[in-house]
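Ex. 9. Protein: Methionine aminotransferase.
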Amino acid sequence: MFNSKLPDVGVSIFSQMSELANQFSAINLSQGFPEFDTPNFLKSQITHYVQHGVNQYSPSSGVPKLQQQIASLIQKKYATELNAAKQITITSGATEALFVAIQTIVRPNDEVIVFDPAYDAYKPAIELAGGRSVHIALKAPDYTINWRTVEQKITKHTRAIVINTPHNPTAKVITQQDITELKRLVGTYKLYIVSDEVYEHITLDEQPHLSVLRDQELLAQSFVISSFGKTFHCTGWKMGYCIAPEHLASEFRKIHQYVTFSSFTPAQHALADMLEQQSEHVDSLSDFYQQKRDLLIRHLLGSRFTVLPSQGTYFLLLDYSDVSDLNDVEFCHWLVEQAGVAAIPLSVFYQTPPGDKVIRLCFAKNDETLKEAAHILCQL
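Predicted structure tokens for Methionine aminotransferase:
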């Protein structure tokens, strides 16, 4: 019998629900990808570079022009100066960046604190590094972090804390109080931070994005990870990046070179042009997605669902307690098979599910798709 390194890992819930959506011709609000296309300028630029022979390996750490454009964006957004060549590494998607960051710092028997509900890539990466994920459950409806509980979970084996803001799947954003508490624990216990900020440019209702990059003391202990796929509606390109202090970035790159070595060269050049020439796209994302969130909520007003607050990302949580007694996995299967709408059950993001009746919808869809889905949900 083959001895699996990840015996508990199967087909992801995202793949399962998308497959069911296709099978039952349902509206797919499950997997978190935009229904609309990548900006025309970006598509034209990648075509330009492909056609003009920019198709070979880039430097392993990334195309210098793209690194510099990211540094300029960080300066503009967070008033933080970076050494682009030494601190910014381009990766094949944010998931690669998360994996490499965790492999860089986690050793056998180390513990890493993870907040549930959590993106499903964290735990396997920790386990493959020989570590153990220590899960702290956040509770509906507000999903706030109890930092006293966090401190109680810290042991002599604790190596790092993984944070995610804006948060997938709860759509919460970290507060200044959270940052203060995180900073205290990192300083007291000499911990590292893996900060998953792939939705950094999608905060709603004028909520600020409190990036770790804003604080030099936190940045000194952090890997900050972001995604071009989320920002430019091109998730299939698998383009992301990791920012870290020079000594950590150097160690990160040692592993990165043996995972992907380098990332898609034409896309790097195109993304650099996009950031340089059409930066207004980034600035408009929050308003763009807020309109979509508000449209979906408005069309759900007549339903029996309870809408939970969405402060960031392009996700919306619904409590279906008044709709069904099924658990959330069973309800999502019923919803796609019988009602024709695919959603994600929140319990799959927990090590120990709390039993809440909450599902996640993705509103990165065309307006008509959202209206049609809401109409169906209002009939339940």
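Check your answer against this statement. The radius of gyration is 20 Å.
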